[in-house]
C-alpha cells in the first residue's frame, strides 16, 4: 500500500487501434506491505536495481519490455529533478 501516487506521464501507441491502449506511468512512493481481500495470491518478485545503472539493465536483457523501460527512465528523470 502507498500514501503517495504521482502520474509521471502516459505512453501512447504509434498506431491507433482499438486493441492498443495508452499506458499511464504512475510512481508509487512510501510503500508499505498490506494484504487486502481480493489481492493476488502470488507475491511480486522485487528485483532491486539502481536507477543510475539503467543502461546496464537494458543491455543485460533482464528488462526487455518497452513500456517498463520507458517508465524506468521517466522515474529516473523525475527523481533527478526532485533531488537537484
Question: How does this model look, in words?
Answer:
With 84 residues, the protein is an alpha+beta fold. 30% of the residues lie in helices and 18% in strands. The longest helix is centred in the C-terminal third of the chain and has 18 residues, at 66-83. The mean pLDDT is 86.
SSE blueprint:
Layout: E1 4-11, E2 23-29, H1 54-60, H2 66-83
List keywords for this structure.
alpha+beta; 30% helix; two-stranded antiparallel sheet; 84 residues
Q: Kindly, what is the distance between the CA atoms of the first and last residues, rounded to a whole number of angstroms?
A: 27 Å
- How many helix segments? 2
Main pleated sheet: 2 strands, antiparallel
Helix content bin: 25-40%
Beta-strand percentage range: 15-25%
Shape: globular
